[in-house]
Design goal:
Distance between the termini: 30 Å
Strand order of the largest sheet: 1-3-2-4-5
Shape: globular
CATH class: Alpha Beta
Number of helices: 3
Structural class: alpha+beta
Largest sheet: 5 strands, mixed
CATH topology: Glutaredoxin
Amino acid sequence: MNIINVPGKNKRHKVMIYTLSTCVWCKMTKQFLKDLDVEYNYVDIDLCREDEKNKIKNSILEKGGELSYPVILIDDILINGFVKKKIKEVLEV
């Protein structure tokens, strides 16, 4: 699985995003976090091997999420979709 790190000055939270490489909302989420200077990691699920996709999908479902992207994990809080207000609230920015 290819986990990509995007550096940022704000490292107060562990941020992981599960995205699709062609998803506009996913791209907007990545840019939003960059603009906030938040460090985060992401995985483009559609570029993963089938076994990795299944592992990620099962993990999302076990945490109570939905299989709609982006899926954002901030510490242990799961956010489905590009919801600016919720992201900012959880990141405390």
